[in-house]
Structure formats: structure tokens, C-alpha cells
Amino acid sequence: xxxxxxxxxxxxxxxxxxxxxxxxxxxxxxxxxxxxxxxxxxxxxxxxxxxxxxxxxxxxxxxxxxxxxxxxxxxxxxxxxxxxxxxxxxxxxxxxxxxxxxxxxxxxxxxxxxxxxxxxxxxxxxxxxxxxxxxxxxxxxxxxxxxxxxxxxxxxxxxxxxxxxxxxxxxxxxxxxxxxxxxxxxxxxxxxxxxxxxx
Length: 199
What we know:
This protein is mainly β. The chain is about 10% helix and about 35% strand. The protein has 2 domains: about 5-160; about 165-199, no CATH class. The protein is elongated and about 80 Å long.
């Protein structure tokens, strides 16, 4: 549950409505330099710099074309999936998909509360989702229909489902315990031909 500051609590108490923008940050590995770089998008109309996760980041304005499904938080270790839809024909989106490796990229979704009269941010953006990008399929619609890229984002709890590759070889197990022979023949056992009724 995100913590709200005094201004946001006062705005909610007035019951005149609220306004907020969604900020999407993707940190992916560049295909050429192999360096992890970040790129951001938000639902505003123009490019703007926000301070998120303690860093000053530039977010490209994508307007209302970014669609974010309702974010539902829950207590526990259950892996949740969130979906964000982007327009694939924008230069920045094309760069994120072509120049970077989007799979398993770190993703953060923030919500920035805005003032109803001025439209300016009233406090720092609040992080709602932190996870990894599972897939980003492009769907090009036929003539007259919109195209889109739907990002599938899993929460950080997904990392708890990964096995430890360190203990999948006989050599790794013997480093831990010299008498461990559990996977001694695991690399060749699949090649053995055992006749019917034999051992």
C-alpha cells in the first residue's frame, strides 16, 4: 500500500476528484554495447523529467495511447502479471524494441499525482509495480485499425520460481560435498540403451 503525503490526503478529502499520470521505465541491455540502459514513457503529451527511485529520469510523452490495466496489489508471494499497451510506430517505442533486448528487462511503473487546476505534479511519483518484462509481442492491425505492443510484466516474486543452476551438474555438487554422486551420470544417462527386462 503506497503512502500518501499531506497534499494528496487533502486532495482526496476534498472529494473533487483526482488526476494522475502513469510512468513506465524499462531498463534493458543494448544489443550492440551490451550495456544496460533505461528508457521511459509516460501518459503526458510532452517529454518531461521526473525523479523516480532516487534518480532523475527523462520520460518520453506518449499521451493517452499508453493503456495500463488496473493495478491490483495483494499480500503474499503470488506472481502477478500486469499488462501495458504501447503504440509500436513511435520512434522511442521502436528504439526500445529494436535497439534493446526487451526480454527480462527490469520494469517499473509509477503513478504521479497531478494538481487538478494547474496540471503540475504535486509530489514525487509513487512506485506501483516493479518486475521484469516477459514478452512484448507486436500486433499490427489491418487498415483502419490501431497497432499496438502489449508488454507482459511479471512482479519480482517470479524470481523465487527459478531453480538454482549452480546445483545442476555433478561437478558443482562435488564442490559442495566430495562424496555427492547424485548427478554423476546425468550427462550421459539419456544416451543409454536398456533392453527390455535388463538393468
